[in-house]
Structures are given as C-alpha cells and as structure tokens.
Amino acid sequence: MEDKTQITDAEWEVMRVVWTLHQATSKDIIDVLRFKKNWKQATAKTLIGRLVQKGLLKTEKEGRRYIYSAVVDEIESIKVLEQRLFNRICNKEVGSAIANMIAEATLSHSDVDLLEQTLNRKKSEAVDEVKCNCVPGQCQCKSHLNH
Fold it and tell me: What DSSP string runs through the chain?
C-alpha cells in the first residue's frame, strides 16, 4: 500500500478528477485539467500512465477508449498524506501546525462546528505535555539541547 500512496502533486490533480467523476476517460481528465493547469494532452496521458503503473488507477476497455477508476480511496489517501506530514515534524509541533492550517483555511460555519466538536472530544485525551519524537539535532526541544 505504501507505493500506492506515493502520489506526486501533479498525479493528485489527475486523481482528484477520477475521484470526483468515479470513472473517467483520458478526454474527461484532459478537459478538466486543461482549464485548471493548462496541460497538454501528452502531459495528462503521461500522468495517467504513471498512475496505472503505480496501481492507483485501473483501466477498463470500452470500445476504442479506456475508462479509468481509482483503486485507492480519496479519504484514505488524504489520511496518509496527513500522517506523512505529522511524521516529518516534531510531535511537539503538531498542534501548532494544525492551528496554522486552520488559520490559513477558508472554512464554513459547519466546518468550524466540526472542529469545535472534535476539539471538545480531544480535551478528554489531552496530555499535559506532548513528548518529542526527534533525535538530538533534529529539533529545538530542550531535552536535545543538553547533549
């Protein structure tokens, strides 16, 4: 599954189209991305081919054309992406990173309600201090500066 979740930024653009349409031809994908990215047909087809090779898209032949559908779920792919981000930073910085993401995001009232509900549930699990997960020299935590 790890190889399947390695999606480049450009491949994400293709996957978003397929996730939205559930099934798409290369023409469908090209038409959407031509407006957003101004990509040529060859660029989109190259990315589609990479995604098929990675096992992220499956193909079904229908007459002279291929229909593409996602092998991986969008929500699960987003969760993997989130986890990768958190694995790259000190555990002590995760809260700040989340707060910064929220501050930068455009949110609806229902999004804010969801965040408030989630934070209220998290309060019961909160710890006094988050433990650092870094090795000495990887972050600014006081526990590492004494070495």
Answer: -TGGG---HHHHHHHHHHHHHSSB-HHHHHHHHHHHH---HHHHHHHHHHHHHTTSEEEEEETTEEEEEESS-HHHHHHHHHHHHHHTS-GGGHHHHHHHHHHHS---HHHHHHHHHHHHHHGGG--SSPPP-PPTTSS--HHHHT-
